[in-house]
Design brief:
about 160 residues, actin binding, RAI14/UACA, ANR24 protein, repeat, coiled coil
């Protein structure tokens, strides 16, 4: 029985040594697993903060895009106003030119009338022509004033668009 007891004791000691060795191996694996879990958690936290930063940058970029689109819309609108003002200026210039030509023709016609000391041949016609000249000159002045205002508005729109 003693030999059997010693053999059993030796077998148990060998089994205990094998279990201790296995326990040490499991502890090393456990430490490695804990380190890996810690590393993965740290990496996940880093990636989460990177994702949040990327989302923040995306939000800022989208806001800038919206602002740029709004600015582009406003500039297109101002450009349309400027084109309208330019068209009005061209129309006013054309009208001023036409009125100036008509005033010049009427003055020429008035100057061509005889200025003799005798009775005028057609006083009502001369008075009508002079009244027409005065009316056209007033209309010309009024048109030039409006033209000046339109030009000023056009310039302010252009300056604003440039700024």
């Amino acid at each position: 029985p003693r030999a059997q007891h010693e053999a059993a004791e030796a077998g148990l000691r060998a089994e205990a040594a094998a279990l201790a060795q296995r326990l040490q191996e499991l502890e090393r694996r456990h430490e490695k697993t804990c380190e890996e879990v810690f590393r993965v958690q740290r990496q996940a936290l880093f990636m989460k903060s990177e994702r949040q930063a990327a989302e923040d940058r995306l939000g800022a970029a989208q806001k800038q895009l919206e602002q740029a689109q709004e600015e582009a819309r406003r500039l297109r609108e101002l450009h349309g106003h400027a084109e309208d003002a330019a068209r009005l200026v061209r129309e006013r210039d054309r009208k001023i030119t036409e009125l100036s030509k008509e005033v010049f023709r009427l003055k020429e016609a008035l100057n061509a009338l005889p200025e003799s000391g005798g009775p005028p041949q057609s006083p009502p016609n001369t008075a009508a022509l002079q009244a027409r000249i005065r009316a056209l000159e007033e209309k010309l002045e009024e048109t030039e004033t409006r033209h000046s205002k339109v030009v000023t508005l056009y310039r302010s729109h252009l300056l604003y668009a440039v700024q």
